[in-house]
Design brief:
By secondary structure, this protein is mostly helical. It is built from four helices and two strands. It has helices at about 30-45, 50-60, 65-75, 100-114; strands at about 80-85, 90-95. A two-stranded antiparallel sheet has the order 1-2. The protein is globular.
């Protein structure tokens, strides 16, 4: 009988560290925390973020999903607004951190480093 080489949907006892949510299993940082750290750095500079910027900087193809997960997981209120590109006429969203969120994110990132 051949051994099944496919990854299981749920972790088994011998697959520790392969399924991580917050980076604590094998000292790696999750993509959500990378996005949050990048968003925090941009907010400190007074800049907004877009999904396109996140893809260019973080190679993140699901930026909007990560923002949604971060808002639910850490009770953040990340403001967003539609902007229209004058050259193409297409719309995109800009994201930034409010003043209250900057304090929360600073504590979250400090806590995750420990």
């Amino acid at each position: 009988m051949k051994k099944n080489k496919k990854m299981p949907l749920f972790p088994t006892k011998d697959t520790k560290g392969k399924y991580q949510k917050d980076g604590r299993n094998n000292n790696t940082i999750s993509k959500e925390l990378l996005v949050l750290n990048w968003l925090y750095d941009r907010a400190k500079q007074g800049l907004t973020c877009t999904a396109f910027d996140s893809f260019n900087h973080n190679l993140d193809t699901s930026f909007r999903t990560h923002i949604s997960v971060l808002c639910r997981k850490y009770a953040l209120e990340i403001p967003r607004r539609y902007k229209k590109n004058p050259n193409t006429g297409s719309a995109y969203k800009e994201y930034w951190l409010s003043d209250n969120d900057i304090v929360k994110v600073k504590n979250i990132l400090k806590q995750e480093e420990e």
